[in-house]
Automatic annotation (TrEMBL):
Record-linked SUPFAM superfamilies: alpha/beta-Hydrolases (SSF53474)
GO MF term list: hydrolase activity
Domain AB hydrolase-1: 22-257
The protein, known as: Alpha/beta hydrolase
One Gene Ontology cellular component annotation held by this UniProt entry: membrane
Keywords: Hydrolase
Keyword Repressor (UniProt): no
Length: 292
C-alpha cells in the first residue's frame, strides 16, 4: 500500500493486526520498514501496527532533489501514512532517525499522538559535537553515494553496532544486508537533508517542556552519543520516563527485541490505563525541603 506525502512523494507502508489501538513505527537511517518485524510479530496480537519506508528508501519514492528531504518533511510523511491508513491517533515508536521524527511528531502534531517511544535518539545533538556530527554526516553521504554495498560493511560495524554483532551474529548479518540495499541517491540525500540539518534537542527546550504527551525514552548504555541526549529529554519532557539497556548499543529493537517489546508493552498498557502521567512535583530535587 502507498500513502501520498504533501509534495506528492509516494510512501510504501504495511499494516499488521486488525484490532486494538494503532502503533506507528518509524525506522532509523540504517533500517527500513522491515526492520520492525520483531515488533510487528509481537504487537500485532494486541494492536493495529503500521510500518513504512521513509522517502528515499525503496519501495517508497526516492526523490533526486536533496531539497525534498528534511526533518519537517519526515514528520509530515508520518502524518500522511496515518491519514492513508485512516488513523486519527496512534502511539508513535521511533528509533534513532525515527526517534528524532517521533520527538518532532509530538511537538508538531500532539493531537495525533497517543504517546511517544523515543529510542536511540540524540546522536549529534550535544552542542560540543554538533558541528563534528554534521561533517561526519556529509562524509557518510559521500560514502553511500559512491558504493552503498561496500560502505554498509563499515557503517554497520561502528562503535554502537558491535554490541549487536557480538550478541546476535545472524541478526546483525541480516541488518548489514538491509543496509547494503540503501539507495545511492536516497541514503545520501537523507543524510544531507535530514540527519545533517536537523536541530539539536537543546534548541527545542521550551517546546519539550511544554509537551505533555506520555513518553518513554530508551537508550543503550554503550550508545555513548545518545546517553546524554536521552537524559536531557527525560529532564525536559514532563511526562517522560527513561529506560537504559545495559551492555547494549544503538539498534535497540533488533539487538534486544524481547526487552524492547516488554518495556514498550508495559508503557503502552500504563498509558492506556491512565497510569503514566507527569512527574510528581514532589520528586523535583530542586524543591525546597519541607521541615514541618
Amino acid at each position: 500500500m502507498f500513502a501520498t506525502a504533501k509534495d506528492g512523494t509516494k510512501l510504501y507502508y504495511e499494516t499488521a493486526g486488525e484490532t486494538g489501538t494503532p502503533i506507528l513505527f518509524i525506522h532509523e537511517f540504517g533500517g527500513n520498514y522491515d526492520a520492525w518485524e520483531p515488533q510487528l510479530a509481537y504487537f500485532a496480537r494486541y494492536h493495529r501496527c503500521i510500518t513504512y519506508a521513509a522517502r528515499g528508501y525503496a519501495p517508497s519514492d526516492i526523490p533526486a532533489d536533496p531539497a525534498q528531504y528534511s526533518q519537517a518533511l519526515a514528520v509530515s510523511d508520518a502524518i500522511a501514512v496515518l491519514d492513508a491508513a485512516g488513523i486519527d491517533k496512534a502511539h508513535i515508536v521511533g528509533l534513532s532517525m525515527g526517534g528524532f521524527a517521533t520527538v518532532h511528531f509530538g511537538l508538531d502534531y500532539p493531537e495525533r499522538a497517543l504517546s511517544l517511544v523515543i529510542a536511540g535518539a540524540g546522536y549529534g545533538c550535544e552542542k560540543a559535537t554538533e558541528e563534528y556530527f554534521r561533517g561526519v554526516s556529509l562524509q557518510v553521504a559521500e560514502k553511500f553515494a559512491a558504493d552503498p554495498v561496500l560502505f554498509a560493511e563499515t557503517y554497520g560495524r561502528g562503535a554502537s553496532r558491535v554490541q549487536f554483532e557480538d550478541k546476535d551474529p545472524r541478526g546483525h548479518a541480516d541488518f548489514i544486508k538491509r543496509l547494503a540495499r540503501h539507495s545511492a541517491i536516497g541514503a545520501p540525500n537523507t543524510m544531507r537533508g535530514v540527519q545533517a540539518a536537523r536541530p539539536s534537542f537543546w534548541d527545542l527546550e521550551d517546546r519539550l517542556k511544554a509537551c505533555d504527551l506520555p513518553a518513554l525514552i530508551m537508550v543503550g548504555d554503550e550508545d555513548d552519543h545518545c546517553l546524554q541526549p536521552g537524559i536531557y529529554l527525560k529532564s525536559m519532557m514532563p511526562a517522560s520516563g527513561l529506560s537504559v539497556f545495559p551492555k547494549t548499543g544503538h539498534t535497540l529493537n533488533l539487538e534486544e527485541p524481547g526487552k524492547f517489546n516488554a518495556e514498550v508493552a508495559e508503557f503502552l498498557a500504563k498509558v492506556e490505563a491512565g497510569a503514566w502521567g507527569r512527574r510528581n512535583p514532589r520528586a523535583n530535587p530542586a524543591q525546597v525541603m519541607r521541615t514541618e
